[in-house]
Amino acid sequence: MELLKRHPKLFQWLFLLVVFFTLCFAIDVPETYKFIRGQAEFIKDPNQSTYTLFGIEVRYYAFDTLWRLPPLLGWLPIWINDSLFFLLNDWMPIEIWNEDIQEYKTRPLVLQITRTLTSSMTFLIELIREILLGGVETIVTFTSWDWISENPWAKLPGLPWTVVAAGAVILGYKLSGKGLAIFAGIVMIYISIFGQWKPSMQTLSFILVAAPLSFIFGLSLGIMAFKSKRVEKILHPILLVMQTMPQYAVLVPAIVLFGVGDHAAVIITMVVAVPPMILLTLLGLRGVSPEVIEAGRMSGCNNLQLMFKVLIPTARRDILIGVNQVIMVCFSMAVISAFIGAKGLGFNLLLALNQLNIGLALEAGLCISLIAILLDKMSLAWANKQTDYFGNLTFFQRNKNTLFFAGALLIALIFAYVGSFYFKEGFNYLYEVPHNKGISTADFWNKGVDWIWDTFFYTLKIFNTWLIVDILQPMRAAYLRMPIVATFVLVMGAGYIIGGIRSAFVVGGLTLFIALSPWWDRALVTTYMATFGVIISCTIGVTVGTLCSQNEYTKNFMLAVCDIFQTFPSFVYLIPVMMLFGVTDTSVLIAVIVYATIPATRYTIEGLRSVPAALHDAGSMSGVTKVQRLLNIEFPIAFPHMMLGLNQTIVFALFMVIIGAFIGTEDLGQYILKALSDRKGAGIGLTLGICVAFIGLIFDNLIRTWVEKRKKHLGID
Amino acid sequence: MTDTVIKCNSLYKIFGTNAEKMLREANGNVDAKTFQENGCIVGVNNASFEVSRGEMLVVMGLSGSGKSTLLRCISRLTDATDGKIYIEGQDLLSLNNKELIELRRNKMGMVFQSFALLPHKTVLENIAFPLQIKGVKDQECINKAMDMVKLVGLDGRENYFPRELSGGQQQRVGIARSLAVEPDIWFLDEPFSALDPLIRKEMQDEFLRLQEKLQKTIMFITHDFDEALKLADRIAIMKDGIIEQLDTPAKIVLNPATEYVKKFTEEVPREKVLKIEDVMEKPNSENLSDLKVLKNEIIENVAEKILTQEKSVSVIDENNKIVGTLHPSKIIHTVFGGRKNKG
What we know:
Radius of gyration of chain B: 23 Å
Number of strands of chain A: 4
CATH class of the domain at 271-337 in chain B: Alpha Beta
Low-confidence stretches of chain B: none
CATH superfamily of the domain at 520-714 in chain A: MetI-like
Number of helices of chain B: 15
Radius of gyration of chain A: 28 Å
Strand order of the largest sheet of chain A: 1-2
Strand content of chain B: 15-25%
Distance between the termini of chain A: 34 Å
Oligomer: heterodimer
Strand order of the largest sheet of chain B: 6-7-8-3-9-10
Number of strands of chain B: 13
Low-confidence stretches of chain A: none
Strand content of chain A: under 5%
Order of helices and strands of chain B: EHHEEHEEHEHHHEHEHEEHHHHEHEEH
Distance between the termini of chain B: 47 Å
Structural class of chain A: mainly alpha
CATH topology of the domain at 271-337 in chain B: CBS domain Like
CATH class of the domain at 520-714 in chain A: Mainly Alpha
Helix content of chain A: over 70%
């Protein structure tokens, strides 16, 4: 009784668990239940039940509602699809003047809008691409194909790789100094020598369009949300869902709206990259102290000056993190959007993985990661750079970078020209190293993989079998064994204990959506994989984070490592694990673990760092040992921040589980991947995406509510 | 004749959604309690006063008394709910945004409690900021800002960033920035409250030196009564949005208008605040000692000389003209008399 009074929450949790397990054992698995055809699969079978809603017939296997709910939302994907098609093909036709046939043509409004967007994106990408690689399409845009065939000279020549490399070095030097310049040089030379120039420049042109556009849109929307409560209210739920929506899922509707190719990829990238930018802009602007704003006003700033000279520079730190995120997402999407036909390194990477050519995949992955790190560092340096207004410089000093670039351009052009005489066989290595003529280490890596397989085959296989048979299969079976009613009790009960009745209904509602969708079983599999990944990641992350926090040097080292790992496009993580474990669930899970350990480690370190020095001193004066200090002082204070890390870990894990579908899983991700190649997949893809987002949001809601309460309790703002 | 720079007429600032409606219904009789019950918070309640050119008005009050709100109404950082404000005869509340910006760019300067420096700009850039905003040429900005750096004694640190400076130095930057456009009116919102006591005293002396030189019209906010006494030409004491008393330091110390004001004045060492002219009597023909004291001398400085006299001493002005007399017993009475009810 004494214990009950002291820890009322503990007993609530115990009670909840008891009810949960009782329900689990009390409700038997129906005899007809089989995982694979458990829910609506759109195959006809006399055992199925049907219902019709909005003119759409849904077929499903009926079970006791305590075991599984009927897929009452089964019509939703089809309905979304039909609405999308209606919007695109029939809604609001308008008259458009057509140049080619010299008459008006009717086109639906939405189609016209998407086509206009598409063509402007294509133009931007092609422009940059042709500056880097050469081509005719930009000129075609202003003239016509006929004109081009009559004037064969009219063609953007494309810059020799030496010019681009020199440009990168000079830019790096200007932004931050020698270190970045050397790094930029190494990256560019590496890309070129290894024959990845063309796909790299294709990817780069994609990023150079997507990243600035996302930045501008995110910043402006963030500013709008900061200025108007109403905009913020409208944006908030969309942002929440987008934060946890897997990037795959957005691809599917995009194909319907924008077609296939680089332009669609840019638009999708913006859809994914803008939300974090908005959130961080908003966070930064909110954080500016009111006195600084008043100081700006009293200095006589008008609204524009106040925004751009006071608010944004003062909020720079958070906005910078936003820029970072944008670049990260862009590279991540550069790979993923290869699924919808974007060219570049991503496409090569995907192709190589499909052929199980690990060596090639590794090269492409390394390239894209290097470019990602380079752009990330450059953007950081750019934002941190001080403008020297008060420089009293000579013409040479002021324009030395431009002059150097002009010089480099000239020299490189001469080299390229000389090269065209020297390399007579058709490949001018001083202009562009062609794809198959560069040095390739693919064979080396492939041999390495073979060697690993030959040498460690049994060890790996034993580990693999043990993991799958003894841990993963039972865990999966346990998740699937949960009757729906028990799941609701568990989720809503947790919501109630943590955040009261309101929280219980929010998480209950989110769960209900998934339960009524036709993919409840798949969602359980997704959750099981994510849970497994999160548990291991957190164990590793917290341990590593805590150990590294003991010492200033290791702490900063670890944070830097996290920074670099975070810059890698998520897809790249699949390469090494496939190298070791081949195409199995284990590979996916290990990729999940590696990827999700990053936020777990980072937040642990940051949380421990935020413990005030005075508390350390107070502890020391009370005579605590290192372990006592950790357990009694540091962990309790750092715990709320570490829980936010858990939140991020879950989101990262879910993302990776979904991406893992590429290797072959049987969860929601697999269905999203299938929807990509389905003509009517848009609705399915979107609904699946929402399901995954909701899984994330359930955890997000619970953790955030707990953290807020805890922080209030501890008096941390 | 003095010329009025700031003039306030029954100024109200009430926070809350239906503040204006409630104020109209209250008919000029605002009671903080009833407003609070209806979800409104009274910031400033019927404030009327004037500040003349070159005068320093110190607004003193504890936290939540509405002193900062009053200042923000007068600088129009918040809009007053009702009442009139005139800056050099111009109706402040009728100005449009453009005119307001123009006014701030040329006539007003403000210093903030937490310094409110821009973290991404150096000392020099921070000080030059209002000038740049105004559109002054770069070279002119630097020269002007450099003058200001020298004025507040930060030479040699102009290329530091705010985070590299101590609190006192940061506030010097804040002061320099507020003076960069050479404003006529200078608002200071608890400028020294965030500083250590010794630095605070140093900054107060520095501030008095600056004011001696610049002769700005000043509204100075503080929660420190001693600071108010030290700096003010006149003090306004605020409580719950109401100005309880507005007068010269001496008159407030000698004749506190309300119980609330009295609580502040009880602890004040009067000999350090009052001047001879505050306690002298009218000149009369009784026989005087040979000692002559200047009328604007602080009592503490001349007390020893006066108290060793037996007869009244004569009080003279700068022109050596006798303007009053003072009996030693009056000093004893003033300095020690007021405290009889304390144990």
